[in-house]
Amino acid sequence: MKRVLSSEGFRFLVSGGSLFLLDFTVFVVCRKVLGIEVVWAELIARSVGAATGFLLHKFFTFARPKGASAMSAQVQGVGYFATTAFNLLFSPFFISWLVLWMHPYELSAKMLGSGLLACETFLVFRYI
Question: In terms of pTM, does the model score above 0.85?
Answer without folding.
Answer: no
